[in-house]
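Continuing the series of single-chain predictions for the mutant panel. This is the parent chain; the variants come on the following pages.
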Amino acid sequence: MSCPFSHSAELNPAVLPLDWLLGTWQSDEPGEGSFPSITPFRYTETLHFSHVGQPVINFMFNAFHAESKKPLHRECGFIRIQPGTNRVAFIIAQNSGLVEIEEGELTGQQLTLHSTALARTSFAKQPYVQQAYPAEA
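Parent structure:
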């Protein structure tokens, strides 16, 4: 069996301003996580940005426990640009059952985003995410 997406598609001009993201990125130093219900922990992240020629960038984020290398948090989704503008939208699905839309602006190689919508599965674990914070990348 062959993968229908294994060919090298040409980058769609609509997402050309995001071409600097393409490829695999890994955190240089571990981050630190803490939540009220668990012991603080350290983690690393791997981010992969790709395309298949459509007017979106595909992404996958994976977090791993820094010491044990155990998989932790995962996200995947798409990045879109509003045609003729610098407005971007991330459409994100998380392995915890949370779905999020973040919107913002692209300035050069900087993304400034804020959460505009959250949804979750009916059986998601508590405590429920109520808000995602603004982010800059």
